[in-house]
Amino acid sequence: EKLVPDATTNVVCGFCSTGCGLNMHLKDGQAVSLTPSTHYPVNLGMACPKGWEALTPLGAEDRATRPMLRNQDTGELEVVSWDQAMRSFCDAFKKVQSEHGDESVAFISTGQIVAEEMAFLGALAKFGMGIKHGDGNTRQCMATSVVAYKQSFGFDAPPYTYQDFEESDVIVLVGSNLCIAHPIMWQRIERNRNNPEIVVIDPRKTETAVAGTQHYPILPKSDLVFFYGLANLLIERGWVDEDYIAQSTCNFEGFKEHVRAFDLRRVEEVAGISSDQMHKLAETIHRGERVSFWWTMGVNQSHEGVRTAQAIINLAIMTGNMGRPGTGANSITGQCNAMGSRLFSNTTNLLGGHDFANPEHRAKVAKVIGVEEEHIPTGLGWAYDQIIDGIHEGKIKGLWVLATNGVHSWIEQDRFKEAVEKLDYLVVQDMYANTETAEVADLILPAAGWAEKDGVFINSERRIGLVKKVSQAPGEALSDFNIFKLIAHYWGVGERFRKWTHPEAVFEMFGHLTMGQPCDFSGITGYRMVDDMGGIQWPCRSDQVGEVVEDNQRRLFSDGKYYHADQRAKFVYGEVTPVAEPTCDAFPYVLLTGRGSTAQWHTESRTKKSEVLRKLHPDQLYVEMHPDDARKLGVEPNSRVVVRSRRASVAAVASVTPSVSPGQLFMPMHYKEMNRLTKGSFDPYSRQPSYKYCAVTVER
Ligand code: SF4
To answer: Which of 24, 44, 50, 460 to mutate to test the pocket of ligand 1 (most atoms within 8 A of CB)?
Structure first.
């Protein structure tokens, strides 16, 4: 009887970027259970196992409930008051800055906190504490798409609505295991009544490849050759939309010339896809009236991810598959608020999608948020990998890590761990004090989690959705927003952030910050409007509100106009480059990595708290290998093997399966040892880590 709810309210899910609506059933204002929202336009009554179990991690017994400071004599973490924690943090960071300069402290943030908190963190760190270098774990997932869209479209603007999944007649999925990584998006495809061709381009025979209608198992990291070859074939066959190219794009002739070198023989040699298969794919795209192209981490986490994403964009714009229902060049984000981070983290761009180097943008931002312009830096800080290098080089001595677990998740994990151990002072702000990163912290700040605070997330289709406080954080844990307020006070800059009183006040600033930008949401009057409308996609200018009310599932570029000054999309392309670590006699296998199951989320800081979710995936790290390789090596199914790279050796259970081709192995990213194997290499434009390829060997 105690658990019989007396009210229900909708809250957007806090795991992946799909952004499902969850009905929170409340008793005395506290969530006691949940069900997927039937009226939310994203998920239409569906949720994946993580969504169903979303309340469980909040009630975990091992939540961080009080600040803890490492005793320098005993080496143990000890409970302290918030006052002691704040004094220690500010004293330590100021000491480092006074001895080594302002640039000697940095922060690493997340796509998991609400946008108002992201903005507060970025503003406080950069405009209040003089921290120049800060980045987010979004560098691990979306940086590539950001750069690709900016260069191709003139702004970081995923153009689609999820409705496009239901309206395409050809759906091309590249490096995306949608069935398990974004299962509700897959369900949207299942609702498609056009009997669509579902083309999956992926080296692995993933769950999605099995469920699709055509699978092209390209060789790992042959994407660029494959897509340039496909573009060349479409051009040769005359299967391009010349009117669209003439009216809405530029630089096509250069692209056409560039891809001429990618004939079908080269594609077969490099990508392993035959000429017949290429003709079949080209015909499928040509015959489709509404072709949509979708990509995610298989593209983004690559040594040439930006150019690969742009090769996909080029296919969409040259065939005129943009701006109409069921079309688009569509990047699917990873985390619940990766899109919020892209606009408001104050790292890869100035708040609201602005440019640090542009004096007019700095003046506008300063005015809106009420800080002096002189406090706004005039350039970007370092990216994640550069911050790690900076620690190794002794340039960064203090690090503040929020809601992310880099010791587990960062590429070439041992190097990250070595870096944090070199720091003078490491602060971890998180829901749990026992993540691999928290375990080596000097100070732990206990933070409230999703549904324990208010704010907005922005999902993959640009929908701003509301998160509400429907559960009380345990002990003395505070919302990240309130922790930032405390830090501003103890740092002595509380007055500079006087406008940042509560999350909705910041959300109102977002309207002014984005005014006149492609991501304009100045027409949104407040949280109430977001809630009433079931989330709102940007743009939503004040003159667009009627349109938004009428159709809350909108796509961009329906008028054929892009955000570059000439209003055209640009064909961007480049040279094919070698992977950082090719296979060799000593390390003859390519290691592929990715998501393991729908029930696991990233480093499992939260999902492993749920007994239900734990039952839905193997509890041990495993490695998929082809039966031919297993036979050659004498490896029995389910036996223990050692996978070795130039950096580490890791024990795993052999999963013998034809889902991978001979010469390839696959390991899921959720288990803590896996990234000891990966090789720290990066896309040169986005600096996104290339998780999807390194050379390993495997032994019984
Ligand atoms: Fe949450 Fe993503 Fe699952 Fe939807 S698909 S319930 S947003 S984790």
So the answer is: 50
* Amino acid, res. 258: H
ipTM of the complex: 1.00
CA distance 621 to 619: 7
d(CA 367, CA 343): 18
- Among 11, 17, 43, name the best residue to mutate to test ligand 1's pocket (greatest count of ligand atoms within 8 A of Cβ): 43
Given the CA of residue 51, which atom of ligand 1 is nearest to it?
6
CA of 284 to the centre of ligand 1 (A): 31
Whose tokens are 């191709």? That residue is 152
| Three-class SS state of 444 | strand
Q: Is 41 in the pocket of ligand 1 (CB under 6 A)?
A: no
Identify whether the C-beta of residue 18 lies closer than 8 Å to the C-beta of residue 463: no
The tally of CA atoms less than 13 A away on the side-chain side of residue 608 is 15
Which residue's CA lies nearest to atom 6 of ligand 1?
51
Tokens of 4: 């019989």
Q: Residues 6 or more apart from 637 whose CB is under 8 A from it?
A: 630, 654, 655, 656
Count of residues in the chain: 700
* Cβ-based neighbour number of residue 202 at 10 Å: 22
DSSP per-residue letters across 551-607: -SS--S-TTS--SSTTS-EE---------SS---SSS-EEEEEE---TT--TT-TTG
pTM: 0.97
Query: For 213-247, what is each residue's pLDDT tens digit?
Result: 999 999 999 999 999 999 999 999 999 999 999 99
Residue 504: Cβ within 10 Å count: 15
589-699 to CATH, choices 3.40.50.720, 2.60.40.10, 2.40.40.20, 2.60.40.2550: 2.40.40.20
18 lines ligand 1 (CB under 6 A): yes
Q: Span 428-447, mean pLDDT? A: 96
Segment (H or E) for 21? strand 21-27
Return the domain boundaries, the chain: 68-141+336-550, 159-332, 589-699
Spatial distance between the Cα atoms of 643 and 630, rounded to a whole number of angstroms:
13
Among candidates 6, 4, 48, 26, which has minimal Cα distance to 468?
Answer: 26
Question: At 68, which amino acid appears?
Answer: M
CA of 455 to the centre of ligand 1 (A): 18
pLDDT in tens, 567-608: 999 999 999 999 999 999 999 999 999 999 999 999 899 999
Q: What is the pLDDT of residue 494?
A: 96
CA distance 97 to 100: 5
Cα(406)–Cα(417) distance, rounded to whole angstroms? 8
- Superfamily of 159-332 according to CATH: Dimethylsulfoxide Reductase, domain 2 (3.40.228.10)
3-class SS of residue 302: coil
Please give the Cα distance from 117 to 502 (Å, whole number). Answer: 10
pLDDT at 1: 57
Alpha-carbon distance of 669 to 691, in angstroms, equals 9
Amino acid present at 59 = G
- Give 68-141+336-550's CATH code, choosing from 3.40.1010.20, 3.40.50.740, 2.70.70.10, 1.10.150.130: 3.40.50.740
pLDDT of residue 2: 65
Q: What is the CA radius of gyration of the chain?
A: 24
Give the residue among 111, 60, 152 at the shortest CA–CA distance from 459: 111
